[in-house]
Request: fold
Amino acid sequence: MTHAQTQPATPVIPLPPRAAHLTTLTGATLTLATTFLAWTWTTTFPGNLTINGYPGGLQTITLTGATLTLLYATTALAPPRLQRLLAPAGTTPPTLLLALGTFAATWYTLAAITLDLGGLVNLEPGGYAAGAASLLTLTGALALPNTAPTTTETTRRTPWQRLRHSLTPGPPPPPPRTLPTWAETLTIAAAFALGLLLLTYGIDTDYGELFTGYLILTATGLAALHRAGLTTRLNHLTTKHRTTTLTAAFTAAACFPLTQTNDTYTNLATSILVFATVALGLNVVVGLAGLLDLGYVAFLGVGAYTAALVSGSPESALHARFPFWAAVLTGIAASLLFGILIGAPTLRLRGDYLAIVTLGFGEIFRITMTNLNGKTGPDITNGAMGIPNIPELNILGFNFGTTHHLLGIPIGRFGNYYLLMLLATLTVVLVFRRATDSRTGRAWIAIREDETAATAMGINAFRLKLLAFALGAALAGLAGTIHAHVITTATPDQYQFAGTVPPNSAFLLAAVILGGMGTITGPLLGAALLYLIPSKLDFMQDYQLLLFGLALILLMRFRPEGLVVDRRKQLEFHEPETPTAKAPTP
Amino acid sequence: MTPNPAPPLLHATGITMRFGGLTAVRAVDLTVHPDEILGLIGPNGAGKTTLFNCLTGLYTPDEGTITYAGKPLPTRPHLVTRIGIARTFQNIRLFPNMTVLENVLVGRHTRTHEGLLSALLRTPAHHRAEHTSRQHATELLEFTGLTRKSDHLARNLPYGEQRKLEIARALASEPGLLLLDEPTAGMNPQETRATEHLVHAIRARGTAVLVIEHDMRFIFNLCDRVAVLVQGQKLTEGTPTTVQADPRVIAAYLGTPEEDPR
Amino acid sequence: MHQLPQQLANGIILGAMYGLIAIGYTMVYGIVQLINFAHGEIFMIGGFGALTVHLALPAATPLLLALPLMIAGGITAAVAIAVTAERFAYRPLRGAPRLAPLITAIGLSIALQQAVWKWYPDAKKARVFPQFTGDSLHLLGATVQRGELFLLIAAPLCMTALGLFVSRTRTGRGMQATAQDPDTARLMGIDTDRIIVIAFTIGAAFAAVAAVAHGLKYGQVDFRMGFITGLKAFTAAVLGGIGNIYGAMLGGLVLGIAEALATGYIDHIPGMAQFGGGSWKDVWAFVLLILVLLLRPQGLLGERVADRA
Reply:
């Protein structure tokens, strides 16, 4: 009888383990070194990769990737305690992913140089060296043994199966020793500080190529951390200390304007916040209650137009200037009212019909706003021109239009609005969290799961759906009032079903679904991605919407539960791992 | 058993339900007394579940009247639950991606009142109400033997426990009458016996039970009275012994024996 | 009120177009319970397909002669896209929760619009579609353009053909069976996959015919023409009773006439002077939809179906 332990599976490239480790380590070190060389001879390619000794632009991406790969490759040979710290679920998957990411980023850079400048001749020897070194690292990583348990027989597996196995994390590690609270708080704070750094870097990228490289490495890097088991650890901590997590997240976010020297990117960040907040509001409607609202952006528009009308803008038909708090309340009330008006007749309908009707309402809103221009309707909204020149906010003497200084760092107009918007986001997050974890939230989820059963439990489905719908509308209205002030205009074309510039209903829905329905971080992350990617990669201008449509199709096909997994959703879309006993047919 | 002298809890007369050209239920009278366990049997397709759906407001019968505790039955299902009728479903309809505890908490929805505003403000009243609800729910899980699984997703439960969870969830609304639709379908004998005990215990707590079943031993051991539904009409009604011996009931299930060729 | 015959004529013609497109929505929804969001784009692609054929033919070809070929071209293009979409985008998601195919449909709709915008030559603006020259005809007090005649002939033809197909052929009856109970239909040996493909095909073909009619009437095709028209056609399908093909055409006619009357007469109602006219017609169409869903959710020809819980 042979011993029960099966042999570890062969990796994609069969090499003895020592050789594999050596190759990986050497490769990573070399890759690191090559980032100090010049990769091209001209500064036409952005980032200045021409100087020996000073990594620039995309070279820093490769540098980071190589360092991390080196770190994880070394961890494999480190004492077990260090391994458990950095890679509790196994060292091979993260190393492989990081090597892959570095390789992809490096070769992307080289390809970009070649294509942008028109020929391989533009690559310096340093570039070739980088390409070779990253390839070497990848080769070594592909040969690393993985100790994860195998589910299929180990003999004669295809290279693809072997690759997948190399990426499989090991069994969930035993829970770590509980650290004292201060240490756990510090960990959470550090994690969010790191997150802020990462996000800031992404937002601050000047040119599309750098953003692409950044995206490649960040995606593989986060995947690597996930397979290493570190994200699960972080999850434990954040679930345990929810309030601390929330504080840390918002403190980190609030520090963003402090990292900026000028207002350009803060503008971008503010727009992301608006988009993210609205997505979170939609998450209440779609993610919690399961109501398919395809015209959600109209509520944002109602809030924005209301705020514009009472803002004291000279083009406003209502010559009124409300103080900000009143404008916000009016905006919320208006959206709430419209939510109820639209929801009351339509929420009794089947889900599919609701989708079409809400889509119709979104269009009606846009058309109506365009038509109330004095010619085809009473002049309330100034038609297609919209209501421009919304004056700057002035709350208790604090003028949002002027630059103020905090700790010596100038915070300009967009910085001010950013912080205001952040408060709104915080409100929405709190509302979301508290609503989910309550009798109402449970009723919403029950309705989403099985409406008939929910009514049999005494839930008045119509009333609760209306509540979700109205709450979602109100939250969008809140975001809308601030949005109007940020961009100083309200025009009908900003509120379409689908268009190149978010927010629009299709993008919002995509953000919620891409990010992960029903979660808090999901829509925020989805919104950030969906806003950043089109705005950074503007060499893809023409293809943006096309790729967006294709991305939706692929997403639904391969990962419908989205990025941030609500553990519920993943089970809904994929086969459960533990087979449940099925009722034998009577 | 002596006839129950108390006024009826559920009183349905002349229930008729049609779907297009098909009459699923025809002029059925049904009465359930407090603290009674009434069984409803009949071949498949006899209209038993349809009758249940009429009794819980899911369908509005085309003819007939239903009263519960003396008052007419509301027409909307959630209101029916509120006045005290709860049910389980023939094909289990749990909330698959909620935990066992959450499923039962949802069952308590109609007996709790804290709204969205109190949840958003996290008032002390809200905390108290949540705490009480959880206590109730935990107690029900103990009653049905599901305490160890309270944090498991309902979807991952084995079949027998899913059935128990459905019952626990239905009990959470503190019903006066519990409607069980084939609670032992697909169960092995031990599980069936356990369900019998559970239903006895439910009656002991003061809830009347109306149960659809095919398992004759279960019906015999459990029910005070049995009603037989065949092709939408009530054939007969009486004690289990009487009904079991009735030749018409046997014929309904087994068919009439062939005419003796002579 | 002297305009009435004209408005009615306009409405019927518009409505017939909606009806043909609505057939596609209603057939697919009736069988797989999917709102094929991309159907409006199938309509649009049908139009472009017809245009391509027209451009490929020698310039001097009389339109009447070219028309059958254009229709064939439009149908080919529309059916090709529809069938591919069914096979690769929708079929893998058959068992998935409702949201997944709907989102896929939205993505497909956007992708198709953008693909045409980007890759069809000069499609960033509307492209000219050939029209019949010659005098309009006067029928029963209304003026009808020659191009509009096409639809008045084609729509009844299509409906008759479809009606015969569904009631007289084996496949047609199989389609009815699948719409009522797909599982049983499969157990009885009906190839439900094939039925679904056929439903998509017929829907796409009819939409292509409608697109040719649209082109002949308005003289142009535009990559965005599917969006609002598609939405209204779905409204028509719901109006008539979703799943019912005669309902789809009836709903289309009702919607078309309502739209025409609204455009013509709303501004005569005191107080509503500014709400008539073309800019508001889409709004009135949606208002009609909402009213129907409130008052008679099963539509004009639909039946209440019991939910056998």
About this structure: The two ends of chain A are 44 Å apart (CA to CA). Chain A touches chain B at residues 430-431, 434-435, 437-443, 445-446, 449-450, 452-461, 467, 471, 568-569, 571-572, 576, 578, 580-586 (CB under 8 Å). Residues 1-6, 568-586 of chain A have pLDDT under 50 and may be disordered.
